[in-house]
């Protein structure tokens, strides 16, 4: 089993990173958002709008029912070994359902495969060859952060940054 942070620790850190990047509502109100603890989401401060933004909806994992900590662990395992199997993930993460792990692994592979296209689009739009960390392929993220020598809790910012980068 991996030494993973709790679900609430993962959500708190992800929330901090989202706030650092800044949130903008479709209503273009400059007052921003506040955190609704009861619903675990951000809500627009504009009384006429009241749009809600959930943490998973602000990441590449929108629609997933799996906990943040499972995503964190799965990406960590994928970064240190791109040949990891769903069965290995299931054992190391202590998750009960093989099919969920298989779908998770396939989604991670698909997201990772989309990175070169996103990098090229970023280069064209920004007219630069410098690629931000959130657009790196996961193998590069692991190379740069030396994931193998650290626990998932110690490298989670790199993973969260990759997941919320659009």
UniProtKB/TrEMBL annotation:
It comes from the Bacteria. Residues 101-128 form a coiled coil. Keywords: Coiled coil. This is Transposase zinc-ribbon domain-containing protein. It comes from Chryseobacterium salviniae.
């Amino acid at each position: 089993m991996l030494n993973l942070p709790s679900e609430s620790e993962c959500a708190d850190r992800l929330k901090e990173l989202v706030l650092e990047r800044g949130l903008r509502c479709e209503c273009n109100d400059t007052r921003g958002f506040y955190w609704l603890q009861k619903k675990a989401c951000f809500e627009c401060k504009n009384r006429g709008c009241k749009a809600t933004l959930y943490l998973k909806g602000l990441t590449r994992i929108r629609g997933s029912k799996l906990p943040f900590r499972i995503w964190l662990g799965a990406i960590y395992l994928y970064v240190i070994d791109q040949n990891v199997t769903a069965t290995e993930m299931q054992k190391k993460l202590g998750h009960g359902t093989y099919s969920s792990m298989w779908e998770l692994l396939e989604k991670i592979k698909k997201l990772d495969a989309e990175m070169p296209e996103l990098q090229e689009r970023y280069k064209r739009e920004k007219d630069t060859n410098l690629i931000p960390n959130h657009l790196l392929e996961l193998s590069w993220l692991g190379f740069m952060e030396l994931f193998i020598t650290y626990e998932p809790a110690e490298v989670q910012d790199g993973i969260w940054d990759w997941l919320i980068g659009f």
